Amino acid sequence: MMPAPRFSQRQPVLRLTLAFLILAFLTPACWAVSALAASDDPVDTGGLAMPGASVPAPLVVHALNQGTAPAYVLKVLKLALDKSGRPYVLKVDNHALPTAQVLRLLEQPDNGTVDVYWLPTAPALEAHFQPVRVPLDRGLMGYRLLAVNEATQAKINAGTPLSPGQLSLAQGQGWPEAHLLRAAGQTVHETAGNLYNEVATGGADAVPRSSLDIDQEVERAREAGVPVTVARDVALFYRDFYLYFFVAKHDDRLADMLQDGLYQAYADGSFMALFRNDPQIRAAMAYTRQGRRVLALANPDATTPTRAIAASLTESLE
Prior knowledge:
2 domains; D-Maltodextrin-Binding Protein, domain 2; alpha/beta
């Protein structure tokens, strides 16, 4: 049965400035790693009717080949547009842009570069843009592995718990995740520098990173001569921490197409087939089955609609 959305996409929200968003989501000089998927045909005319049929003009949708798990998410984007049953043209740009610039563009209608982007949700994003509240990651963004140095791994091997104050966790300056960790009593070390260098040199004990991202990031760090590894035996789990599509505040047409298409993809099984068979998702899910000690942390900033996401749209990861 198709899960029904619990809340309207267009509830009243607080007006927050774009400057705050840029501050919160501007990635510092850390290993910003995303395996960019090559596209032989960046223009997809899926959903177009046969010639001569009477249909609305297709919606042109611009997307960027960057961000978390772009190869997977772009497949989800195309699936959602296909399943919406409405005509569209999808144009994917392979030129990477800073997150701050993407957010500035996203708020501008018909900017010709980006109409939809995906990020871990946060109240500021949900207030300033229109979220499509169907988790693209089924909660995997909240499953955090720890990149550590040898000394920290030795502490973990000796049975050091993940209880508050036991480990210092590195975060980029202004990251919303830092507030979540502090609210749980964890010791947080914010830096504008390279997070993996902080861990390797002992400035912090570990950096929590998504199971979707950590393999590529640790590999890049090692290639640069930074000695870090993925901690064995332990992980964090952030509750109500999801990867959403975001569109411009008043882009109801695209928001409706994406939401309707995602629910239809759930109803006919195509979303789960894509999720279960994607290589990056399979690798991330494998981490969750390795018997790690998992410390679950509440997300104090999660909005009411995000807290109400149906269990059928998420994985059981605790």
